[in-house]
Amino acid sequence: MAWTLLEPEDEATLTVAEQRLRRQLSLLFRFAVAVFCCWHLFDFLFSSIWMHGYIWSLNLPIDLDMSDKSAGAIVYHQLHQVGPVERVVHAILCVLGVAFVLLCVGFGKSEGQTTWKLLRVSIVVGFVTGLLRPVQMKQRFFSCLHEGFYCYFMFFVIGLILTFRFGEKFPKKEALTEEAELKKTE
């Protein structure tokens, strides 16, 4: 599996420099996957081809009347306004922002952070973004709901990619059978 590709099976066989290099490469891989997912989440949730993106596009402040245009024309207009380089830079900045917030709330310092805490933090970020967006852009309420959901969903997915560790919390099968035998004897 790609997620555990750089994770050592037995850390005792690796030197400290090799462990550090593997951690850095693992972080770089997770960062690249998070940027890729962020870019595609943005393209999916704000694309006019899909109904939610189409309604979002029609509720934006008007720079060009798009109410009688097809979804393809709206997508062409959006892609003309924001090119691929700007979208990649946006995705990188989003991932760095999520990583910074996760470090601030304690995901980098202590062990035992749960997915539920990540979900709560992402809901708060989405809710605050949804409330601040109408003040910032003077947009309609529906667009704010859409962007608040996007921030919540994007934050949760990126946070999950950056923080989730496979197999660290699960006990070995031998330990489970030993626990079951101890419970039977008691």
Automatic annotation (TrEMBL):
The organism's superkingdom is given as Eukaryota
> Which terms are listed as keywords in the entry?
Membrane, Transmembrane, Transmembrane helix
Q: Does the keyword Transmembrane apply?
A: yes
Q: What is this protein called?
A: Transmembrane protein
Membrane-spanning ranges = 27-51, 88-106, 118-135, 147-166
